[in-house]
Write a structure and sequence with these properties.
The structure is a homodimer. By secondary structure, chain A is mainly alpha-helical. A two-stranded antiparallel sheet of chain A has the order 1-2. At the A-B interface, helix 1, helix 2, helix 5, helix 6 and helix 7 of A face helix 1, helix 2, helix 5, helix 6 and helix 7 of B. Chain B binds a DNA duplex through helix 4.
Chain lengths: 167, 167
Amino acid sequence: MANATTDGGRLGHEELGWTLGVLLRHYQDEVGQVLADVPQGHRGFQVLASVVHGDQRSQLALAGHLGIDRTVMTYVVDDLVTAGLVERQVDAADRRQRRLVATTTGRQRLAQLERDVRAAEDRALSSLASEDRTTLRHLLAAAACAIRQIEPVRDPCEAVEGALQRG
Amino acid sequence: MANATTDGGRLGHEELGWTLGVLLRHYQDEVGQVLADVPQGHRGFQVLASVVHGDQRSQLALAGHLGIDRTVMTYVVDDLVTAGLVERQVDAADRRQRRLVATTTGRQRLAQLERDVRAAEDRALSSLASEDRTTLRHLLAAAACAIRQIEPVRDPCEAVEGALQRG
DNA sequence: TATTGTTATACTCTATAACTATA
DNA sequence: TATAGTTATAGAGTATAACAATA
């Protein structure tokens, strides 16, 4: 018999554009309050997080990772620098590139922000059971990492402990 | 030991803002091509779909459902009307409201578009195994429906067959 | 000549305000 | 007085183009 998965037909409330849109708006409402005082809000938080976690090696790489334009990245970083959360360093190996490094203040600020953001995320997904939230997070991470061609993290514990050792 | 689910700490690639953002952009790239000729693109498609499926009873309700401003809704509907896909009808019970109804052309157009969009969605999630795609769709739908306070569909087959009978 | 980052500018998208008509 | 829809306008956000520094 026809079903929503195989008939290729009517999508209704499973249409990805709608579900992703609803979820992202709701997420931004919840998280927006937490990040109200962060320079450039959610963008600033994402840049700071990537810098602290050391994901990317230049502003351009960071822009690609976060899906924003390099001209936008400039003033997002400007504001983070002004706020004393990150610093620009010229890459010695390629002096065109700027390596972004977090200040002590930036790392401390991020640690608290990530706790608050995580709590806001859980509020945004509060309608789901705890195990469903975890499943959703993992599937979203797997899909997003595949799209960005990043090796997905198999074991979240490992990754976190790695981060703790680095930090 | 610390883990990503309970320590409330570092988020990395499980941060919802990033995963939802990556996925939505990728989705828009894929689906954007399919909807290039639809008036107002993805917005126009979503409005047309809601009209055909009879979800909402006025432009304002529709705007809330899709998370867009009522002033935007006006010209999205304008373009769909111009394209002959939907019609505005004054609601007899409240003459301030406009009931949107799909034309025959609009219904036929949507049927084909939904097949194409579904295919594009599957391409966007092609890195996930089939059963993981289904799980992700259901969890996203459950979360989004809860946020919008819509009764989530328990059995997708039922919903589709209901739609088929109505259509 | 190509790339990174910056600046200035133009464009697009969205929200605000004011208006009409209905209730 | 309040609400649905429309229109015009202003604002925010984004992309485009031109430039400097470096490869």
